[in-house]
């Protein structure tokens, strides 16, 4: 007899959107269907590995008045009147379940969830097709800073006497060059530190925890993702690993540290 809790798989981009406490979440049924398992297996994995799931971080357990409100605001969920509590899984919770199942289908569906469901609003908020590299962004920032300083320099010079122009021009030119160099260094230090990709060195600096790069490389090879190469003063260049790899391998969410960066 077919499991009554098992749903037909729905593509991640077509999932019914459920938002709870400011983030997108998925139900047991949605997760089980996408991962090719059943609801009971999802529940048992959670029960057997309770120490790996933190409420508010990996999941939300909704009950009481909040559950009644969900019945009214998200009627498409069709929550049974007999349901006393509802499990809603965050992106981190979905990653944990994919790791426990360890199947190609679960990993493929988790990757789709990350790209088309959990991160959809973030992607939609990005400006249309500009696709600038970090080197281009760095160059544009330096040029912008130089232009701003040059304008300020010209405005100041207009108020000075002719006798002061020579000495002021030299001092301001040096200040402009110095400011541009400082800006260049500050932005260069951010290479490899973003919500999309991060180097092992960058993550260690913010978490004070040592991480190995080999598990990240193995995961990327298995899932068809490529790390970025970024400039490094010590080694010439290092690899900056994608957010999905950090989340899946080490349960590190880069948006916790660099979520405000472009």
Tell me about this structure:
This protein has 262 residues and is mainly α. The chain is 55% helix and 12% strand. The chain is built from 12 helices and 8 strands. The N terminus is likely disordered.
Major sheet size, sense and barrel closure: 3 strands, antiparallel
The tally of beta strands, per DSSP, is 8
Order of helices and strands: EEEHHEHEHHHHHEHHEEHH
- Please state the structural category: mainly alpha
Shape: elongated
Rg for CA atoms: 25 Å
End-to-end distance, in Å?
A: 51 Å
Helix content: 40-55%
Would you identify the regions where 5 or more consecutive residues have pLDDT less than 50?
1-5, 122-131
Specify the number of helices.
12
| Overall mean confidence score, pLDDT | 79
Strand composition percent: 5-15%
Across the major sheet, the strand order is: 3-5-4
Main traits of this protein?
about 260 residues; 12 helices; disordered N terminus
Write the layout of secondary structure elements.
Blueprint: E1 19-20, E2 23-24, E3 26-27, H1 28-35, H2 39-48, E4 59-63, H3 64-73, E5 85-89, H4 91-101, H5 104-118, H6 120-125, H7 134-158, H8 162-190, E6 197-199, H9 200-207, H10 214-223, E7 228-232, E8 236-242, H11 243-250, H12 255-258
Antiparallel strand pairs: 1-2, 3-5, 4-5, 6-8, 7-8
Helix pairs in contact: 1-2, 4-5, 7-8, 10-11
